[in-house]
Amino acid sequence: PAPRSTARTRLVHTRSRRRSVHTHGGRWNEPVGGPSYDFGVELGEVRRLATGLMARHGVGDWSLGWDNARTRAGMCRYNTRTISLSRPLMALYEREQVREVVLHEIAHALVGAKHNHDAVWRAKAREIGSTGARALPVDSPRPPAPWVGRCPRGHEFHRYRRPPARSSCSRCSSRFDARFLLEWHAAAPGAGRRPG
Predict the structure, then answer these.
(1) 41: which DSSP letter?
(2) CA-CA-CA-CA torsion for 142, 33, 125, 61, nearest 10 degrees?
(3) What is the pTM of this model?
(4) What does the buried/exposed string (b/e) look like for 173-195 if buried means 16 or more CB atoms within 10 Å of the residue's CB?
(5) Tell me: the pLDDT tens digits for 129-173?
(6) Which member of 81, 90, 108, 114 has the lowest number of beta carbons within 10 Å of its beta carbon?
């Protein structure tokens, strides 16, 4: 097996609340090298690509971490000098999408926390080979949302967490309207749709 660290970059597994979401024959909270999907990059390859890019662009002394985020692909943690990537999303993305996410986070690491997505960050992102976009395109793959809400007129909303309070359909009325209450239920396994 491939070594888990290089001379300057160490791999860190970040812990987060773990809930199993069963889909495509796998579980999203499986460890690195866990579920393999026919349409994405192997997580070992993601690690090799990320650590190589980090070393090439001067943040090889930062750590690479994994998390279970389903609505953001990466995160730059300045206080721990860690670039964290979403395990579920990396398993779905093609190599170019993974590269874009990693370069996006490297640009954050290089310019510092105070720049967020401003012109300084954008210039650095473009300089190192990123598009400089704030986010990946909306049609990028996402893991299926485990909760589906339906209004009486049949509009559907997909969420990763069950809403704690009563909510109504925003397509039927721009304000809360009890006539259009959403009824939430667990989605069928593998019934993947984008949150909306």
Answers:
(1) -
(2) 150
(3) 0.67
(4) eeeeeeebbbeeeebeeeebeee
(5) 999 999 888 888 888 888 899 999 999 988 888 777 788 999 999
(6) 114
Amino acid occupying residue 42 = E
Q: Which residue has the tokens 């994994």?
A: 66
- Tally of CB atoms within 10 A around 47: 21
Give residue 136's identity as a one-letter amino acid code: L
* Phi–psi pair at 191, nearest 5 degrees: -85, 70
Token pair for residue 113? 């926390």
Is-contact 149 184, C-beta < 8 A?
yes
- 5: Cβ contacts below 8 Å, ≥ 6 apart: 11
Q: What is the Cα–Cα distance from 90 to 111, expressed in whole angstroms?
A: 24
> Any idea what DSSP says for residue 143?
P
Contact call for residues 63 and 81 (beta carbons, < 8 A): yes
DSSP 8-class letter at 73: S
Contact call for residues 191 and 155 (beta carbons, < 8 A) = no
Q: How many helices (H) and strands (E) does the chain have?
A: 4, 9
Residues in the chain: 196
Q: What CA–CA distance (Å, rounded) separates 128 from 106?
A: 9
Give CA–CA dist 80/12, Å, rounded. 11
Distance CA 35, CA 114 (A): 37
Q: Do residues 70 and 88 touch, judged by C-beta distance below 8 A?
A: yes
